[in-house]
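Suppose a colleague, Dr. K., hands you the sequence of a protein chain of 407 amino acids and asks what its three-dimensional shape might be. Before reaching for any lab equipment, you can write down a predicted structure in token form. Begin with the sequence itself:
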Amino acid sequence: MQICISKLTIMPKVSNKGIQMPESPIRKLVPYAEIAKKKGHKVYHLNIGQPDIKTPEVAMNSIKNLDIKVLEYSHSAGFESYRTKLSQFYKNTGLPIDVADIIITTGGSEALLFAMGSTMDFGDEVIIPEPFYANYNGFSTASGVKVVPVISSIDTGFALPPIADFERLITPKTKAILICNPGNPTGYLYSKEEIMQLAALVKKHDLFLIADEVYREFTYDGDVHYSVMNIPGLEENAIMIDSVSKRYSMCGARIGCIVSKNKELMATAMKFAQARLSPPTFAQIASEAALDTPQSYFDEVITEYRSRRDTLVEELNKIDGVVVSKPKGAFYCIAQLPIDNADKFAQWMLESYDLNKETVMVAPAAGFYSTPGVGLNEVRIAYVLNEEDLIRSVEILKNAIAAYNSK
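The predicted structure, expressed as tokens, is then:
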């Protein structure tokens, strides 16, 4: 029997979920940056939160001379030795976190996916103040969850919107409120009073409060970070997301954790952890060793970032028409530019503009919102370059704005 296959090619279709997955506003311009570099242009990367700070030596040395005969799976929750040491690290910083409250994940990203998968079903809703970390859109799409945004404003420095704005968005499908504190992309640090307002709201409506606290150490001007794990009576509602990526400048390690005292939640997250088998071994070894990093390392890093922040904001304020909110934490800021469309402008700077063979790469901020048409003339800038490069980058940006608007 001969089977005849038609010459008419019918292509199999990708999933609707895949089609709906948003592109990263941070990474989608990479091909244009690569072309610019091939043309011999220097590109100043203000688009991505990749610190230029050296990873602590204690972490790097831990993996240089390992004598491992078999690279085995670790426990699905991560090495017990790491979780024990991490628990003590948290307690030393005032967070009452026990070993049983921690599951090690492949970066903070997987911790967020575990949190969504453990608390929300398909079609459920999560309320997030925007602008927010762009991948929250991707994680929610992958989880079949609807993001319900509540808009914060550059006019208030991206402070927490009024609690009434959150409450009016709560429906029977609302399962959680998600915050990033300090914020990516805004650099805003929520005060204790703002965190307590959210805590009261989630208790009132029996919701989870998921706090992405990966930038906890990066606070300036005497402001103090207040964790959701510090709130008495919120033990069943609070979920903390953490990571080594920024704390130790170890973005490539891909080690994070999900933390909660809600035992049912953690048992559920553990099933997701078992399904992906285990977090990476070498990176866990380095992350465990990183816990011995001396305080002097952090003191120097915070001093450096504070100086960079001040330099960046000062230089941006010299450009006519630019509005920038001074960040209180993390190492990002949102800048409103006197242009029509930040996506077009960012691509144009890489494709068609240079100042003495130098240009700048920024992250268009519309991708950090889920509300259509918001943030179109805003960019996120990561101050992860040294001050000299930041000053030069803003000089290029100033000239680029003038050239773009005169086209």
